[in-house]
Each structure stands twice: as structure tokens, then as C-alpha cells.
Design a protein that fits this description.
Number of helices: 13
Helix content: 10-25%
CATH topology of the largest domain: Alpha-Beta Plaits
Number of domains: 2
CATH architecture of the largest domain: 2-Layer Sandwich
Radius of gyration: 22 Å
Bound molecules: iron/sulfur cluster
Shape: globular
Distance between the termini: 64 Å
Largest sheet: 4 strands, mixed
Number of strands: 19
Strand order of the largest sheet: 12-3-14-13
């Protein structure tokens, strides 16, 4: 095993291959607070890539209801249980956060390090398991099933909805492949059929080389590599790479976001490309919205960073959920992220307006200051709202769009009152 640097863990870690980094990395931010579980993203992906024979149970993009739901069923509790067995009590963080290790240091074992302690017949490159057929057939079992005092009508509306954590809660977790910096799927493939593109870090399976051994399905802790019985090879999310290459006819050569991002009704999704240095760190790109949300505002956090694949999907955690539950899922940055989101500063509020105003990838933003339009007192202090304008620029530096913090109000003229 080689030593590679995992900035999400704040330490070097073991990985089967030497470090090799793309020049840019596909990355995305999902704002869980806004997801309504409509599954439009899920269907946008399904109708584009997985509508064929043998793909009936294949959902590259899915939305599951937490804490009970999961696709495949219980994927997260199963991998966490395996990690706990291999490294009892090990999943702990040390709070020495600084610029180079924004969440502190993870002291436990990753799935690559823990796999070494498994001896005998079942030697693995990454700790994992193969879900059975049943586990793949229910993409959103436990939909809208909450934690809390079920059957008590007063529970939800009395003390139940008081922040910081509701007594009765659930939330929607939208997921796609994280196009990880240290992909477990790639590490486990005995055919070397999986590769990471040097230009954008997208992880793909070469359909010609794959022989369907399913080692990637077993190793991916997020279970985003899937086996297709009709072709006997594995498949996974391809990050809609033709769109990112500007090949969609409507893109006119400009990089465009994926189908699931573009379709999002709740406007929870923003996707981009972040520049990567030779050491694997994100190169400072202060006005790139993804860089800003993850590295500067630190309002968006990786999903299960302790697994060690350095996933490139980031989530703004839901405000109403008990912190302990969120911390096991997103690491120790949860408290800061929720505080920042609950009382956003001027820049964060402006950047949040960029979500889903265009399907083209935003590479840079600028903010033009506007007038103060509102102020109030919150539990954390004074909050002031400015009607700033945020301007988005594309890959060639040209303006894509501009939008304001305050949503415009349209008054319907007093004619045709009975029409829409
Ligand atoms: S999420 Fe899974 S399938 Fe996607 S790159 Fe990471 S390890 Fe591979
Ligand atoms: S389309 Fe957007 S709002 Fe609807 S389920 Fe998907 S992520 Fe959530």
C-alpha cells in the first residue's frame, strides 16, 4: 500500500495505488435543507442512462429518507458496522482543525486500512460487502418515516418543532457517485477496468475490460457501482460527462451540469469543477462557488469522510436534526456548517442564490453590493439582509447570468383574473 494525503481526514492514509491527481475535479454541493424528496433528479437520471433491460433496479441517482431509508437497503449502517468490528471504537476525530485540515484529524481506520485486519479467505483491498438482490429492489423504503413519538398528534406541533433539533424528524439524502479522489471501486478492480479521468476526475468503468467480478460493487462504501445482469458487467454514474465536455446541443460547447442537477425542483444542487494541485489539495480559487462553500464558508461537508475515499460530494446539513446523528454522517464540521447556514453572512447569502439559476457550470462569481432591506434579532445576534447582486461567469470568463438576493415580486395585472 502507498501513503497518500487525504485532506478531509487531515492525515496521510494507506491506498493501494500511488497518488495521481486530475487537473480539475468534478464536485457538487447539495443543500439538504431544501430537498423535498420529489425524485425528479432520480427520474432524470433513470430516463437518460438506466432505462434499458437489466437496469430495472439500477438507480445511479437516488434520494433516500434518513435515518431509516437507504439504497441499497441499510448500506450506511452495514459499512459502519463492518468498520466498527474491524476497528472497535476507532471512528474518532481530534479537534485540531486548521486550514489544511478543516475538520481536524481522523484517528480511526479507513476502509482501506481496516481491510488489512481481515484475514483468511475473504481478503479485500477495501472493507466492504456485496448487497443481496433484495437490498437493491427498494430505492426508497421507509419514505417519510420519521424518528420520534409516533402517533402522538401533539408531538409534532408543540415542543416537537423547536430548534436546534426537532423531536420528530427525517430528511432526504440525495446521492450520486462521489467521483472520489481515492475510489474504492477503482482500487478493488482486479481487471484495472476502472479509471479516473485526468481532466475532470470523473470515475468511469471501461465496459470492454470489465468482466463482472463485482469487486467494485463490494468495495464502494457508498454502493454506487452496480452490476447489470443482462450484460454481465458493472456500471455506474458517469457524471453526464458529455454535458461537462459541452457536447449537449444546447450547451454550444460550454460545460453543462449533469441531468440530475439540472432537473432539481428544490434547487438544492450546484455542481462545478475545482482546480487540483500536484499534491492533491484544492488550489485556492476563492471565487469558484464550490471552493467557497466547501473551503471558505465551510458550510458544505463530505458524506462519511471517515471511510477514506475522499468523496467529492458535499452537503449542507439539515438544521432540524440531532447533531450527534449528523456528526456520524458528515464529521465534526456540522456545528459550524449549521451556524453559518442559519445566519448567513452577506457573501454566503449571495452565493446561495447561484443554485439552479442556470444549467451551465459556474466557474466564478462576483458580488455587487445592494441596499440593506431588512434586519432582525436572532438567538445568535443581529441579522442584516442586503439586496446584493451576484454575477456568474462561465469557463471562458463570459457572464452567464446575474441574480439578486431578494426575489422579485410580480403583481398580476387586474385583468384576466380567472386565468393563470
Ligand atoms: S462513490 Fe463508489 S463508485 Fe463512486 S468513485 Fe467513490 S468508490 Fe467509486
Ligand atoms: S429533484 Fe432536487 S428537490 Fe427533488 S428529490 Fe431530487 S434533489 Fe431533492
Amino acid at each position: 500500500m502507498s501513503q497518500v494525503h487525504n485532506w478531509q481526514l487531515g492525515r496521510p492514509m494507506e491506498y493501494p495505488y500511488e497518488a495521481a491527481y486530475p487537473s480539475k475535479q468534478f464536485a457538487f454541493v447539495f443543500n439538504i435543507n431544501r430537498c423535498l424528496g420529489c425524485q425528479t433528479c432520480t427520474m432524470a437520471c433513470k430516463s437518460t442512462w438506466t432505462f434499458g433491460k437489466g437496469q430495472e433496479s439500477m438507480w445511479w441517482a437516488n434520494v433516500e429518507t434518513k435515518p431509516y431509508g437507504g439504497y441499497p437497503r441499510h448500506w450506511d449502517s452495514k459499512i459502519l458496522e463492518l468498520l466498527e468490528e474491524a476497528d472497535p471504537g476507532g471512528m474518532q476525530w481530534r479537534g485540531d482543525a486548521e486550514a489544511k485540515k478543516p475538520y481536524g484529524t481522523y484517528d480511526g481506520k479507513t476502509i482501506f486500512e481496516a481491510a488489512k485486519s481481515r484475514i483468511g479467505d475473504h481478503q479485500q483491498v477495501a472493507l466492504g460487502y456485496l448487497p443481496n438482490d433484495d437490498e437493491w429492489v427498494t430505492p426508497n423504503l421507509y419514505e417519510d418515516v420519521p424518528v420520534g413519538p409516533a402517533g402522538r398528534p401533539d408531538a409534532l406541533h408543540s415542543q416537537g418543532t423547536t430548534l436546534p433539533a426537532h423531536a420528530t424528524w427525517f430528511y432526504y439524502l440525495a446521492r450520486i457517485c462521489n467521483h472520489c479522489s481515492y475510489p474504492a471501486c477503482l482500487a478493488a478492480c482486479p481487471r484495472k477496468a476502472i479509471y479516473k479521468r485526468p481532466e475532470d476526475g470523473i470515475v468511469l468503468i471501461d465496459q470492454e475490460r470489465c468482466r463482472g467480478y463485482r469487486k467494485c460493487v463490494e468495495a464502494c462504501p457508498y454502493k454506487k457501482s452496480m452490476y447489470r445482469g443482462s450484460t454481465r458487467v458493472s456500471e455506474k454514474c458517469i457524471a453526464c460527462y458529455p454535458r461537462i465536455e459541452g457536447k449537449d446541443p444546447r450547451a454550444e460547447g460550454r460545460p453543462m451540469e449533469t441531468r440530475c442537477m439540472s432537473a432539481c425542483i428544490g434547487q438544492i444542487r450546484l455542481q462545478g469543477l475545482v482546480p487540483i494541485g500536484p499534491d492533491g489539495e484544492w488550489t485556492e480559487d476563492r471565487k469558484n462557488p464550490i471552493y467557497y462553500l466547501v473551503k471558505v464558508a465551510k458550510v458544505a461537508l463530505p458524506l462519511y469522510p471517515q471511510l477514506g475515499t475522499q468523496p467529492n460530494g458535499y452537503y449542507i446539513p439539515p438544521r432540524w436534526v440531532p447533531r450527534q446523528y449528523l456528526e456520524q454522517m458528515f464529521g465534526p464540521g456540522v456545528g459550524h456548517a449549521i451556524d453559518a447556514y442559519t445566519r448567513p453572512d452577506r457573501e454566503l447569502l449571495a452565493v446561495l442564490q447561484l443554485f439552479r439559476r442556470s444549467n451551465l457550470i459556474v466557474f466564478r462569481y462576483e458580488i455587487e453590493p445592494g441596499p440593506k432591506v431588512w434586519e432582525t434579532q436572532t438567538a445568535q445576534g443581529k441579522f442584516e439582509l442586503y439586496d446584493d447582486t451576484v454575477i456568474a461567469f462561465g469557463h471562458d470568463g463570459k457572464e452567464l447570468f446575474r441574480t439578486k438576493v431578494e426575489e422579485p415580486v410580480y403583481v398580476r395585472p387586474e385583468k384576466h383574473l380567472n386565468s393563470i
